[in-house]
Each structure stands twice: as structure tokens, then as C-alpha cells.
């Protein structure tokens, strides 16, 4: 009976298209199915700006976040490479419901602020406020504290900027396989997003990426 309810709960989570802001969202395990080969996804990659304001299912959101920063091996290493395996880029997911921090190790979302803050991730591009999720890639220097070798600050930032390039391209390809549009964005209201996402001054906002259904 317990198993039945657990299965029912999982089925409901997987099928839900709208999820209210919750303190923590446990994301479903990513099935690696997709309709496209990598070569097909590459040939179709483009920036989209014609988003429609419709939430992603938790299942789709799970795939997008996993592509951005997920763990893909038992040793904890990730989909995307990082210098010295120091994963210094955090991913924030900004939806119509709230701002969440993606906890890659546990494949969960942690609520940072409830409400629609999508407009704070742009300097005024209207399409951003319609995209189901705006990912914000943030460099966190704390990640280096346990590294066996700590590079100088400029090298840390260079590493993060290189890593984020891989991250956005993985998301672009995953979005393509899910029939979703995406747009990488450097124009971000950094001061405002730092404030609403409660980011410490030490953190650096690198890039944003809108993902969602398109017309
Ligand atoms: C680092 C970077 C920053 C970008 N910033 C923005 C942006 O702020 N707003 C936007 O609409 N597109 C932005 N783009 C998307 C580019 O405009 C787009 O990739 C380019 O026009 C080529 O078009 P395509 O992606 O469809 O091939 C950015 C792309 C990159 C790589």
C-alpha cells in the first residue's frame, strides 16, 4: 500500500505542468531518452525569443537542470567539465513561481524566494518574462576552498567562464531534444538579481539562459 502511494505521488509529480512554490522540489530521475541524435540537435540549435508563458513539467525542468549542472557518474562528476573538478558555477532557476537554487548533488531545487522574479534576470528584453525558466549561472569562489590547488582569482573566473560555455551548450541541446526554445543572455540586471536572490558580494553573475515553450 505504501509503495502504491509512493508510485502515485511520483506519477502526479511527473505529469504536473504547474508546480506551486515549495521549499524544496525533489526532481525526478532523468531518463536519457530523446527524439534527436546529438548531430540533429546541433544542426537545429539556435536562439529563440518567441516564448509562450507556460510552465514546464517537473520532468522537463529536471532534464534541463541536469544538462546544466547535473551529476552523471557515481564519483559525483558532472555532465559538464570543470577545471580541477571544482564546480564553481551554481545554477539558479527562475520561474513564474520563484527563484530556486539547483542542488546538483541531490538533484533538488531549493526555494530562495517566492514570486515571479523573471524580469530581474534581464535589462529589459520582454521575452524573458515569458520564458518558463530563466537559468542564471553564478560563480561562487567558495567552491575552491577544498581544492588541492587554488588558482589566482583571475584564473578562477576564467575557468568559470569557460565552464559556463559548456553548460549553456548542453542546455541548448537538451532543450532541442525536448522541443523547447532557448536563448543565452549576457544582458542581466545584475544588481537587482543579486538582491532578490540574496547573493553575497563575493559571487559573480556570469550568464543567463531562457528556456521554455515557443510559439
Ligand atoms: C555570451 C553571450 C551573450 C549573449 N547575450 C544575449 C542577450 O543578452 N540577449 C539576447 O537576446 N541574446 C544574447 N545572446 C545570443 C546571441 O545574440 C546569438 O547567439 C547570436 O545572435 C547568434 O544567433 P543564434 O544563437 O541563433 O545562432 C548571447 C550569446 C552569447 C554567447
Describe it for me?
This protein has 215 residues and is of the alpha+beta class. It has one domain (2-212): 3-Layer(aba) Sandwich (NADH Oxidase), CATH 3.40.109.10. 30% of the residues lie in helices and 20% in strands. It contains 5 helices and 7 strands. The protein has helices at 2-15, 38-44, 58-69, 153-177, 190-196, and strands at 24-26, 89-94, 98-103, 108-114, 133-139, 181-185, 204-212. Strands 1-4-3-2-5-7-6 form a 7-stranded antiparallel sheet, sandwiched between helices. A hairpin with a 4-residue loop joins strand 3 (98-103) and strand 4 (108-114). Helix 2 packs across helix 4 (153-177) and helix 3 (58-69) runs antiparallel to helix 4 (153-177). It is globular. Residues 1-18 have low confidence and may be disordered. Residues 46-47, 49, 125, 183-187, 207 line the site of flavin mononucleotide (FMN).
Write the layout of secondary structure elements.
Blueprint: H1 2-15, E1 24-26, H2 38-44, H3 58-69, E2 89-94, E3 98-103, E4 108-114, E5 133-139, H4 153-177, E6 181-185, H5 190-196, E7 204-212
Antiparallel strand pairs: 1-4, 2-3, 2-5, 3-4, 5-7, 6-7
Helix pairs in contact: 2-4, 3-4
The structure holds flavin mononucleotide.
Amino acid at each position: 500500500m505504501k509503495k502504491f502511494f509512493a508510485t502515485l505521488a511520483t506519477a502526479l509529480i511527473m505529469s504536473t505542468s504547474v508546480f506551486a512554490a515549495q521549499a524544496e522540489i525533489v526532481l525526478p530521475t532523468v531518463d536519457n531518452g530523446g527524439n534527436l541524435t546529438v548531430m540533429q540537435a546541433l544542426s537545429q540549435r539556435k536562439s529563440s525569443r518567441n516564448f509562450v508563458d507556460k510552465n514546464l513539467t517537473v520532468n522537463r525542468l529536471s532534464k534541463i537542470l541536469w544538462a546544466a549542472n547535473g551529476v552523471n557518474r557515481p564519483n559525483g562528476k558532472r555532465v559538464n567539465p570543470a577545471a580541477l573538478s571544482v564546480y564553481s558555477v551554481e545554477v539558479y532557476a527562475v520561474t513564474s513561481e520563484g527563484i530556486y537554487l539547483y542542488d546538483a548533488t541531490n538533484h533538488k531545487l531549493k526555494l530562495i524566494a517566492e514570486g515571479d522574479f523573471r524580469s530581474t534576470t534581464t535589462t529589459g528584453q520582454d521575452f524573458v518574462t515569458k520564458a518558463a525558466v530563466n537559468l542564471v549561472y553564478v560563480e561562487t569562489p567558495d567552491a575552491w576552498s577544498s581544492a588541492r590547488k587554488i588558482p589566482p582569482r583571475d584564473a578562477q573566473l576564467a575557468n568559470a567562464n569557460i565552464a559556463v560555455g559548456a553548460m549553456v551548450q548542453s542546455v541548448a541541446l537538451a532543450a532541442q531534444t525536448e522541443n523547447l526554445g532557448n536563448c543565452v543572455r549576457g544582458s542581466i540586471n545584475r544588481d537587482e538579481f543579486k538582491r532578490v536572490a540574496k547573493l553575497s558580494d563575493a559571487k559573480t553573475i556570469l550568464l543567463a539562459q531562457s528556456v521554455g515553450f515557443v510559439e
